[in-house]
Amino acid sequence: MADYLVIVESPAKAKTIERYLGKKYKVKASMGHVIDLPKSQMGVDPDDNFKPKYITIRGKGDILKDLRSSAKKAKKIYLAADPDREGEAIAWHLAHALNVDEDSACRVVFNEITKDAIKESFKHPRAIDIDLVEAQQARRILDRLVGYNISPLLWKKVKKGLSAGRVQSVALKMIIDREKEIENFKPEEYWSIEADFLKDKEQFEGAFYGLDGKKKKLESEADVKEILNELKSKEFTIDKVNKRERKRNPALPFITSSLQQEAARKLNFRAKKTMMLAQQLYEGIDLGKKAGGITGLITYMRTDSTRISDVARQEAAEYIENAYGKEYLGTKRVTKKKEGAQDAHEAIRPTSVMREPSSLKTVLSRDQLRLYKLIWERFLASQMAQAVLDTMTVHLKNGRIEFRATGSKVKFKGFMRVYIESSDDSKQKDQAFLPELEEGTVVQAKDIKPNQHFTQPPPRYTEARLVRTMEEKGIGRPSTYAPTLDTIQRRGYVSIDNKRFIPTELGVIVIEMLQEFFPEIIDVDFTVKMESDLDSIEEGKTEWIQLLDDFYKDFHIRLEKAEQEMAKIEIKDEPAGIDCEKCGHEMVYKMGRYGKFLACSNFPECRNTKPILKKIGVQCPTCKKGEVVERKSKKRRTFYGCDRFPECDFVSWDKPISRPCPKCESLLVEKKIKKQTQIQCTKCDYKEAPQG
């Protein structure tokens, strides 16, 4: 039997770590939590200092029994759960279950699963951090007090299966508030005047700026006509040319929230998928015997710190100098610690920058490789030199009227040779560089175009935008973003259209009821303060029982009032205007997990259900009888098929359009290419210019 027993959370980690530590160590997996609060009841006694009732999780009895058996034979036990609050709580539960002294040097933490990092961490074991444990315990109990009290109330008053979590309710309210902003938005008209200028044979664009050197807004067509009438000719004189050099810093390496945002924008990954793939890369991938076997490829993926170790920084500098040259080496950037950040470990980075993405093509899945490449490029770029751009602003005069043209050109790429951060703004575009222009030069306005615009409402939240907003406001923590977004979708509180959240009728009803009886639960400031108070417990400044007591006093009063006064809401089924083809009763719209669907009003005698089909006005190209309708796959991805399915099996991921190909008469479809839409034929090489 091995002298030392090491307990980690997952089997993948166990195999890797055992190989690194050698024969004297036996590494076993707890498979996450083995002890927790019961699922079937709240498991917390508010009348006894919020004493939690911990039990062995159903199905984990054999795992715990095996761990106890191994613990009896070991000289020393090391608890190596993940390096965060939850991992500390898992280690604490295991210590109590296996009779390990929590004050002994039994806790081992590491930020990456590599041989050097593992061996170094075992040289510095420590006692279990009880402040971390209490912070996690307080969060868990707080969520129980909210969820296990309000959720049953919603079941009674609205419908079964609803939930009201602390963070999820705030996220849902943000989505609903944004929808109200959009509904109440009143567009305002404004105009612009753009011109194509010609200097010799070189063309560049400019736009109206103002009169007599002062900026002027164009609020109506009359304003535009006034300017156009004042133009004496199409000749403009270059009045001023401002040139300057601008430096651009690389983005910082990833933290949890920025990884989720960038993976959504660049890879079209949902937050849940990003975290699942990141977990796989962190726990280890089998690179083959020659490359070291199972190896962790990235550092821990739940972090709010942008810190980088000196070893990683030095390795990156060596790689950059060899691959790009000394001039591409960046300087060490000191970043201010964000308020509320736990800063417990490093940023998300590759465990070795020398392990290039191209070398992993044969061992990683397509999506694993895409995410690893994103992390690798972002980290490498963060250690590179600034980009240098030449920018130019040109003032063009025609009498009192002034137009301006701006442009930029990359002088030195720096980090931009490797990676450029994307943006939520799909309309953002790089400025074109202007031709060499000098003061006093006369140029011709080839084409002067007035354009009418209307102000736009704020956009609905995408997953990336919502995560960013939650992070900016201090709602939740790195580990909570993905599960929060997943929960509000699974409960049917939101639907997704064009990757954006839209609140459902059910979601609005739940928030309205919480607003009336539990306003603090959906209050952003209250939630942010609660996160700060939980951090104070971790820092040893606040007693966890006192925090819970302060919260529960008022909450309990509100709960009793809600039990008595909350009205029962009946969500009536909306008639669909068609009859059930199986029994003849009327079909109605019902609310389900993924939004509305059609069901027979004669339920449960008749269980006929149908998806709601959205017609797109295109005849089925296969059977010529049915119509093409929009459908959803099991993973909620939109596709198009014939409404006569299964009689007709026509399907397409791309949206068909009503007109035929002018070249071969076949089906034309809309393809999404880099945020633009291109119409192309499904049979021949016919394509139209991208739009959007």
Structural descriptors:
four-stranded antiparallel sheet; Rossmann fold; alpha+beta; Topoisomerase I, domain 2; 33% helix; globular; 29 strands
Rounded average pLDDT: 90
Counting DSSP E segments of at least 2 residues, the number of strands comes to 29
Distance between the termini: 66 Å
Task: Indicate the overall shape.
Answer: globular
- Global structural class: alpha+beta
Number of helical elements: 16
Describe the strand arrangement of the main beta sheet, using strand numbers.
8-9-15-14-11-16
How is the quaternary structure best described?
single chain
CATH superfamily of the largest domain: Topoisomerase I, domain 2
Q: Which runs of at least 5 residues are low in confidence (pLDDT < 50)?
A: none
What is CATH's topology name of the largest domain? Topoisomerase I, domain 2
Whole-number total of structural domains: 6
**Proportion of beta-strand residues:** 15-25%
Let me know the largest β-sheet: 6 strands, antiparallel, barrel
Helix percent band: 25-40%
CATH architecture of the largest domain: Orthogonal Bundle
CATH class placement of the largest domain? Mainly Alpha
Instruction: Please tell me how large the radius of gyration is.
Output: 30 Å
